[in-house]
Amino acid sequence: MHERIGVPSVEVRSSWVVATVVLIILALSFGAPWITIVALKLIAAELGDLRSVPALATALAWIGFGAGGLVMGYVAERVGVRSTVIFGAVMICIGLALSTGGEAWQLYIGQGLFVGFFGVGGMNAPFYVYISRWFDRRRGSALALISSGSYVAGAVWPPVFERAVAYGGWRQTMLYYGLLVVAMVVPLAAIFLRPPPELPLPVGAFSAMSASNSVMGWPPNLVFALMAAASIFCCVPMAIPQAHLPAFCSDLGILASHGAAMLSVLLGTAFVSRQFWGWVSDRMGGLNTVLTGSIFQIVAMAAFMFTQDEIGLFTVSAAFGLGFAGIIPAYVLAIRELFPAREAYWRIPTLLLCSGSGMALGGWLAGVLYDHFGTYAPAFAAGVAANAINLAIVGMLVFRQRSRSAWLA
């Protein structure tokens, strides 16, 4: 476990209060894109019966999360995270309203620009930087907690949206949910999101390494570029079940409500296991945790290719959630371990942009491959291939880190 000896900790009880509020805000904000996923077949039926159209809208939202985080992270450094979060909540509401217009371009702009770039983008990446400044001893656990917001959203909202869409339609569901986000997020941000405490010293188990002109004996930006590339390839397979599981189940004759419940199992399991991965990462470090989680993910991804029955898919979904859950916060922890704290405001959002782009690519690619082949099997195979590339990159970084540590010892 990475400890700082003889240095006062900034962690207090209010640190966990703030982290819990951030978790709630992210669980609400990340709920917005799930409406498009749950209603994918209905939206596609109104737009030429092409699943690639709503799949692309979801992909644009993921790209928006990342690109917006890079820009809004810079803004949050100057005006404070409270302002960007309040602004983001209003943008989510506007984006969901625009998405109901009935045209593909309205869905793309509403999801990609307003919900993604200005909405969740104004919250997600700035929150990683913000919360990392509230913690120094249990940072991995705290990052795991707040990064679970998207999984809480995925566990809670799909069954709710499935019933809401069946009762009132996907347009009404989007409109009312946008209003709920504003009503909940704005007061929470105004009350709880105060400036974080100042860290007494630069933080990180590898701060001496970060202070030099190299990271693990390599140029810092080379290491960062490899981590960013690895995040893209790990998120391609990560996105495919999350974006297409309800539609995949429907194709197999499984009830839509059961498909939504399956998605909730996947993401609910991911939420629980992410807390475990946070505990692990505090002890074994960020890169080692990424490697371990990626191995679990590729095994579960391959299992989707060979599973067709409902009970089997529930089992594989739970296993997939257990495996991939700790990967993204472990990347963020690795950045804080390997690079100076003053660079966190741009390195963390940049990495999340890359991971979000991987999520976007995975969700969109699965839709395109389905439209071409009429089955999801090629999409799952592409996910396994992307995961294998990720394992090769991360494995190289872990080997380099261990070799360098042994040489310095």
Mind explaining what this structure looks like?
The protein is an all-alpha fold and 409 residues long. The protein has one domain: Growth Hormone, Chain: A (Up-down Bundle), CATH 1.20.1250. Helix content is 80%, strand content 0%. It is built from 18 helices and no strands. α2 (32-38) crosses α9 (149-168) and α4 (52-79) packs antiparallel against α17 (344-373). The model is unreliable at 1-5 and 201-211 (pLDDT under 50).
Structural class: mainly alpha
Number of discrete domains: 1
- Rg, rounded, reads 20 Å
Order of helices and strands: HHHHHHHHHHHHHHHHHH
The CATH class designation is Mainly Alpha
Could you name the CATH homologous superfamily?
MFS general substrate transporter like domains
Shape verdict: globular
Short synopsis of the structure:
This protein is mostly helical.
List the helices and strands and how they pair.
Layout: H1 13-29, H2 32-38, H3 40-46, H4 52-79, H5 81-99, H6 104-119, H7 124-132, H8 139-147, H9 149-168, H10 170-192, H11 207-211, H12 220-251, H13 256-284, H14 286-304, H15 310-324, H16 327-338, H17 344-373, H18 377-408
Helix pairs in contact: 1-8, 1-9, 1-10, 2-9, 4-5, 4-6, 4-7, 4-17, 5-6, 5-10, 7-8, 7-17, 8-13, 8-16, 9-10, 9-13, 12-13, 12-14, 12-16, 12-17, 12-18, 13-14, 13-15, 14-15, 14-16, 14-18, 16-17, 17-18
